[in-house]
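Tokens in:
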């Protein structure tokens, strides 16, 4: 065997050994890494920014953008941004809610972080810089206009402790997992089990 042929065989063998087999690594098709996460005792809401920002630069803050996206029959203030009224077909409860902006009425419809901020903190966001945490807190892919009491009941729970009604549960599970993957966050074992148990019925 010539020296050149031997070198080619060595290179070929090295290439085949180095080729990933799909059993590990950060393949885009992989789900989030399972990890119990931190205890969250050092979490504070202000670590994710102060109030709503305008991430897409359209002049309206993220809260009003989500209200305008998720509500029907909306009316706007003269600024062209602030949602004054609208109708929400709530994804969490299946009920229809009339939204009216006001001190005593706005809480009927709240903006939920699908992956709660404190959950994100416990599962990797504690290592982010302030800019990334603010981006996460205002990312429309992680925001939903929902029934206020349902949002309060969910609080900072993962899917192992809280899930919406059956009509939206599959979409919720997909969205929760997609946000974790997008931001490289881990998932608690009980939440991974909950999502896995839903998977057969959501295909």
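Residues out:
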């Amino acid at each position: 065997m010539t020296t050149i042929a031997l070198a080619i065989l060595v290179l070929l063998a090295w290439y085949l050994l180095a080729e990933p087999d799909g059993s590990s690594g950060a393949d885009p098709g992989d789900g989030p890494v399972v990890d119990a996460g931190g205890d969250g005792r050092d979490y504070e809401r202000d670590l994710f920014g102060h109030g709503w920002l305008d991430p897409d630069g359209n002049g309206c803050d993220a809260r009003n953008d989500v209200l305008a996206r998720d509500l029907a029959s909306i009316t706007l203030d003269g600024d062209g941004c602030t949602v004054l009224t609208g109708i929400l077909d709530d994804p969490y409860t299946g009920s229809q809610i009339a939204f009216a902006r006001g001190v005593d009425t706005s809480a009927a419809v709240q903006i939920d972080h699908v992956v709660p901020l404190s959950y994100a903190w416990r599962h990797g966001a504690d290592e982010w810089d302030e800019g990334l945490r603010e981006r996460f807190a205002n990312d429309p892919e992680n925001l939903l206009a929902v029934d206020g009491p349902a949002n309060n009941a969910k609080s900072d729970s993962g899917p192992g402790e809280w899930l919406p009604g059956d009509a939206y549960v599959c979409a919720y599970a997909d969205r929760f997992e997609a946000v974790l993957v997008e931001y490289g966050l881990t998932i608690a074992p009980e939440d991974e089990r909950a999502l896995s148990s839903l998977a057969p019925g959501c295909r």
